[in-house]
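User: We ran a pulldown and think these components assemble together. Before we commit to crystallization trials, I'd like a predicted model of the whole complex to look at. Sequences follow.
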Amino acid sequence: MRAWSTELREYAGRDVALAGWLHHWRRLGQIGFLILRDGRGLAQVVVEDPEVCARIDGLKRESVLRVRGEVHLSARAPGGVELHAPTIEILVAPPAVPPLDLSRPHLAAAPALVLDHAPVALRHPRRRAPFEIASASMAGFRAALRARGFVEIQTPKVVGTATESGASVFSVDYFGRPAFLAQSPQFYKQIMVGVFERVFEVGPVFRAEPHDTPRHLNEYVSMDAEFGFIDDHTTVMALLAEVVRGMVTAVATEAPDAVARLGVRLPAVPPSIPAIHFTRALEIAEPRAGQSGAEMSDLTPQHERGLGEWARETHGSDFLFVVGFPMSKRPFYTHPDPRRPGYSNSFDLLFRGTELVTGGQRLHLYEDYMSALGRRNLSPAPLAGYLEAFRHGMPPHGGFAIGLERWVAGLVGAANVREVTLFPRDQQRLAP
Amino acid sequence: MRAWSTELREYAGRDVALAGWLHHWRRLGQIGFLILRDGRGLAQVVVEDPEVCARIDGLKRESVLRVRGEVHLSARAPGGVELHAPTIEILVAPPAVPPLDLSRPHLAAAPALVLDHAPVALRHPRRRAPFEIASASMAGFRAALRARGFVEIQTPKVVGTATESGASVFSVDYFGRPAFLAQSPQFYKQIMVGVFERVFEVGPVFRAEPHDTPRHLNEYVSMDAEFGFIDDHTTVMALLAEVVRGMVTAVATEAPDAVARLGVRLPAVPPSIPAIHFTRALEIAEPRAGQSGAEMSDLTPQHERGLGEWARETHGSDFLFVVGFPMSKRPFYTHPDPRRPGYSNSFDLLFRGTELVTGGQRLHLYEDYMSALGRRNLSPAPLAGYLEAFRHGMPPHGGFAIGLERWVAGLVGAANVREVTLFPRDQQRLAP
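Assistant: Here's a predicted model for the assembly, 864 residues in total across the polymer chains.
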């Protein structure tokens, strides 16, 4: 029976079998210290037998091993526990040494090199930790929504119509017909509110914008929810706060090793996340961002950073809702603020000074859709399927989309979203 | 506080508020019977007030309503409970009547028409039930794997290299460079075995085959798992059996209404799923399928049906493993059977006579990959990232991929996989 490296303490005084990769090997005179890495952590193996030492001397890093030995508690060992008197079985002796030194506390290599060698670089304990956090986050997202009666859906990624105005799309040759990669599941999740009232989806979205920033990718994972019978966007914001709380809890309980390894400071989600109107956000942000101009209709990254500082200083909060973005900057399906023409019932949720979530109330009346499309000179024809849902009764509804990679980047303090994406896609990068 | 239609019994004798869609309305003299549909089920509302009756007379189907009334137990009511003395608030009065009669027990319309009007047709209680089952199945898949230490991953769908030999790919214009839609997460999930040992992914896959069958789609949802330190394919089969068991349990416990509505007979997953070698499968299937020819190197759908009957008659099992497919029909990464050259350590799992899962042990030695590519005249250059994982130590590993839509089709007895796909994609269909 095999044990995980992270469970070794439970086996103190007993024999145990580990399996994993030769992470590091150093000789100190007659004694050798082998660090074995498995899918969860590291274990120190103390080798005193000269024959075993000699065998390990001949192995390359990343050799795949099975190691059996006695578990000893030891104050000097990393984690306070180590394996003694091992027998070692070599499962795989790889042909080459890794292009990166995985045994250093931090990967000392240029970011591009790390991405080029992702299949190996991701084995580094710090490098893989964000993906343990991502896995826990997705589980927390789904658990929070399932507990509230949401149904998980899977909607097509090859579509006949672009979904988000403004954002450019990737073209697909679909049996000789033009098609696109879905920029979001927006239309489908709204349609499905007519079916299940409450739906969510976790899946890839594709944006063909030729941006080259630390916070944009051309393919990313969107965690979407949409639900009906809301009062307005505030119902959506209340749900989102609960979902984010569930995600933080899941990260704390399901990825504690990764949290500890990276020294992640998990955010507190206040009972009521502070919320300010877009116009107020500009007043706060512009002096801080050194920007002015009352005519701004959107927030810049500088604004967001300033607002993040303000939320921390004024409310002690890592989160800040900005509500009521100008209609002109939101997609056609956005519900206007009935009391404040020109502004919308939509919001962004900033997390530590970066936009993490976009959401809001959507239009739900067929006639409102027809007017909105008309005002924007958009043809209803390509949207026939979408509009059919509204033609046959849709309740007031809304939802949100959380960017998984941005969430993880904010948690672990990654400067670039590529650090928390397994195999990022950008203008330059299509492999590995 | 709003109640779900499915919870009405719990409110017997009390006032309750429901919300949903006007599913059906009929007058019997002075009394009217309104069937309200919400995201979960149906509720009967008895209307005796002539003014309320008159208001409902003027409403179209699929009007969105809030209904408050007294909950009465009644043997004559569907489900034994109904709402009396209702007050009705009309939230949305839609502009048109639905193109399909959603109130019939079965949707009486041609399959193509139902798909054309999916945004409305999916509201039908029988039509939406398979997606409640799909949602529960995904939850069961993930729960079974998370309980066994698997990490959820999200891998790119836009890729630089085709993954599955034989299957054709969709092309994407990626900033002027050629790219493809991923036919499977195969390469990435194998790479990630080097990182976490145990990984899974639920996501879309894309196949450009121009097939037109009841069991193929050009985009579908693949539930993938892959893990290391296995003995051989039998370790994979044992895990798969546990995962399928977890999925059945999740469907039973999390989608009982849908199971009841469709009269789904849930399969028993036997403690040991019967398994036969490919050569034996041909012997069994060929007489039944009326096909012969000992030179067969794959199973046809007729074979699979015959084997399904055989498994049921001989073993009382809905499931059957066919093991050891010829190497010539399996992808280059397939591990051969060391004791039987020409055959592989791979398997299919048949469910009720249809291939549901493909899986097996993979090659794990770098030199074996180089030989396998050489034998198939495949260039290693486009696979550089994938091969890098093997160049630096990969344990014996394997995995499987379950087709979500086929699973649900098998459960509910759908003749065509399109019936259990929200918005299917085939050669003809790119919308809605």
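Chain A has twelve helices and 16 strands. That may be worth checking against your pulldown data before setting up trials.

User: Thanks, that helps.
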